[in-house]
């Protein structure tokens, strides 16, 4: 196997968090499998979350009616996107697998990670009208949402008070990742680590490490769509 490259986009404020432990476990196991691993630690980077004209170096085309997608497309063509966006795009382009590690906030990702999606996945670079979904630009790249919750699993079942987790994840997995072509692997969900026993938390981390040992070999069996269909 050629060396695989993994990008972990990590969004937690605290190095003592369970999310940090999940990120560290991934780094360790993937490196032991001879993968090269890069981590974008968004809070440590103070990653800018808002999509604004400051993301473009030099003149914008229409400052009176600034349109983010069109302006960033032009800037990307001309190599005038801001340095932080360009750097994340380089990491993403080189990756065979991208893992997003975050605590669920309001049924979705924390704002800083939403900002990463808004600012890094620009028109032209990550998608066009012709290149999306199964014809998408990142169709050779695997993507995986790995996240912690405050809720127990039963609360996110189809009959639970929060409703079906697969529905909750549709905007992220379909609207963002699959839209850009990514092969979306089944999500890794760490249910309510705050309420788990120390043994329970260790077991969750061990299961994650084991999954990652086999992530290249069996990923075709772990596609998110297969996961949804198996539940229906
Ligand atoms: C704004 C906001 C919105 C939210 N919205 C939602 C929502 O929509 N749905 C929902 O379900 N939840 C929601 N939550 C809750 C949130 O998702 C959880 O609090 C979070 O996911 C818990 O993960 P953590 O990494 O922060 O855990 P932590 O609190 O950091 O960790 C949990 C426990 O794990 C321990 N731990 C740390 N490292 C290790 C290790 N190496 N081994 C074993 N144990 C370890 C910690 O000491 C701690 O006791 C929300 C929270 C906020 C702040």
From TrEMBL:
Its main location: cytoplasm. It catalyses: 1-(beta-D-ribofuranosyl)-1,4-dihydronicotinamide + a quinone + H(+) = beta-nicotinamide D-riboside + a quinol. Pfam families: Flavodoxin_2. GO terms for molecular function: dihydronicotinamide riboside quinone reductase activity; metal ion binding; NAD(P)H dehydrogenase (quinone) activity. It comes from the Eukaryota. Its cofactor is Zn(2+); FAD. Residues 4-212 form the Flavodoxin-like fold domain. SUPFAM superfamilies: Flavoproteins. It is found in: Cytoplasm. One of its GO terms (cellular component) is cytosol. Belongs to the NAD(P)H dehydrogenase (quinone) family. Homodimer. The enzyme apparently serves as a quinone reductase in connection with conjugation reactions of hydroquinones involved in detoxification pathways as well as in biosynthetic processes such as the vitamin K-dependent gamma-carboxylation of glutamate residues in prothrombin synthesis. This is Ribosyldihydronicotinamide dehydrogenase [quinone].
């Amino acid at each position: 196997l050629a060396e695989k490259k993994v990008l972990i986009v990590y969004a937690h404020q605290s190095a003592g968090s369970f999310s940090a432990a999940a990120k560290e476990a991934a780094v360790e196991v993937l490196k032991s499998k001879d993968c090269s691993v890069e981590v974008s630690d968004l809070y440590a980077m103070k990653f800018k979350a808002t999509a604004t004209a400051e993301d473009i170096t030099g003149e914008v085309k229409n400052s009176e009616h600034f349109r983010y997608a069109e302006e960033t497309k032009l800037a990307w063509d001309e190599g005038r996107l801001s340095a932080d966006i360009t750097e994340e795009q380089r990491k993403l382009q080189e990756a065979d697998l991208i893992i997003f590690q975050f605590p669920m906030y309001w049924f979705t990702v924390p704002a800083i990670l939403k900002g990463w999606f808004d600012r890094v996945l620009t028109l032209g670079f990550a998608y066009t009208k012709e290149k999306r979904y199964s014809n998408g630009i990142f169709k050779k790249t695997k993507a995986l949402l790995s996240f912690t919750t405050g809720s127990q699993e039963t609360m996110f079942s189809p009959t639970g008070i929060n409703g079906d987790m697969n529905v909750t994840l549709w905007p992220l997995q379909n609207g963002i990742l699959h839209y850009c072509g990514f092969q979306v692997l089944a999500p890794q969900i760490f249910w309510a680590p705050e309420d788990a026993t120390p043994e329970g938390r260790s077991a969750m981390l061990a299961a994650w490490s084991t999954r990652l040992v086999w992530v290249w070999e069996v990923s075709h069996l772990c596609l998110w769509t297969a996961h949804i269909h198996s539940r229906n």
